[in-house]
Structure formats: C-alpha cells, structure tokens
Amino acid sequence: MEPADLLRDLAFLKAEKDLAARFGLPSEALLPLIFSLRFGGDWSYALEDLRTVSVMKKTSVYDEETKLGSSLEEIYLLANPAITEREGTVRRLEKCGDQPTRLLVERPYRVRARADRILKMTIDPRAGEIRVEDLDRREICFEGSPAYGIAHEIEHLEKKEIAGRDLSELRFV
User: Fold this and answer.
1) Domain extents in the chain
2) Sheet holding 139-143, edge to edge
3) Averaged in consecutive runs of 10 residues, what is the pLDDT profile of the chain (173 residues)?
4) How far apart, in whole angstroms, are the C-alpha atoms of residue 72 and residue 120?
C-alpha cells in the first residue's frame, strides 16, 4: 500500500471515529451506521441501555441528455426505535446472517417510527461527499424498502431471529 493511500484510509477511519464525539453517542451505538456505509444494507445493535438501527434508502439520479447518473444513499440511524404505525402488507424474501436460505416474510409497506434520536448520513458519490446530520426530531416515516428494513431490524432487537416461511415451501410452476 502506498503511503498516500494509507494516510487517506487513516483519515477516513478517524472521521468515522469522530462521529461518536460529534453527536455525543457511545461509539458502539454508531456501528449500524458504519456497517451500512461500509457493507451496505440495514443493521441493528444493542447495548445494555441503548438500541440502534440503521436503515438505508437509495435514490438513483440519471440525466438522459448526458447519460450520467449516480445513486444517492441516505442512511438513517435511529436510537431506541419503535414502530408506532404500520400500513399495508408486503410478502417478500429476506436472507439474514447465518440463515442457510432466504425466508418468506411479511413486512409493512409504510411505517412511522419514533426514536430518542435520528441521525441522517447522506452519501453523494458524484460530489465525493458524506454528510451526517442530527435531524432534531423524534419521528420519521418510511415506505417500501426502508420500511421493510426497519421492521426487520427491530424484529432482530426484540426476538433475535426473523420469523417466516422456509423458501422450500414455495412451489415451482
């Protein structure tokens, strides 16, 4: 590894570490946010007195004239989240952790969630920037994929395992 690459990587790691102090949270509370940034997907983590969930929302922006685009990613970190409203039912396949195959589960299409704190990380590949802000509110709504994600991660925090039907219960036609 070149020295310049090592310095860049160390600066990135320091910026990640500094987020905890910047927002006054234990560093472990930010693990779901960092995991979503580094590995993609939604994550959850529980400390003795604090549970956090990260939920990812992706939006593709594409210019038909220039034929250029990018995917804007928003990652929400919710501290001590709870779903207060659910709307609709979506049947979908999910794979998680060390499960051997995906499960057929039911998730809400739309949710309203409350949390003690909500942070938002925006990753803009086109601008080459990652912005993190405290949303200064305690309630947020998600629909579609982020709604499935928060329901999945809260199920982990409450029950540890995801409940659903085995993939082999589906039939080929």
Assistant:
1) 3-169
2) 82-87, 110-114, 139-143
3) 88 91 95 96 94 97 93 97 97 86 94 98 95 97 96 90 87 94
4) 13
CB atoms within 10 A of CB 166: 12
CATH ID of 3-169, from 3.90.45, 3.10.350, 3.40.50, 3.40.1000: 3.90.45
Question: Which DSSP symbol is given to 32?
Answer: H
Question: Would strands 103-107 and 117-124 be described as parallel, antiparallel, or unpaired?
Answer: unpaired
Three-class SS state of 20: helix
156, 165, 160, 166: which is closest to 42 by C-alpha?
A: 156
Q: Which helix (H) or strand (E) element contains residue 19?
A: helix 3-23
Measured between alpha carbons, how far is 107 from 115 in angstroms, rounded to an integer? 20
pLDDT tens, position by position, 92-116: 999 887 788 899 999 999 999 999 9
Alpha carbon distances (Å) from 30 to 104, 120, 141, 159, 160 = 29, 12, 21, 21, 19
Dihedral class, residue 12 (left if φ above 0, else alpha if ψ from -120 to 50, else beta): alpha
Phi first, then psi, for residue 70 (nearest 5°) are -160, 160
Helix (H) or strand (E) holding 43: strand 43-46
DSSP 169: G
**What token pair was written down for 52?**
């956090």
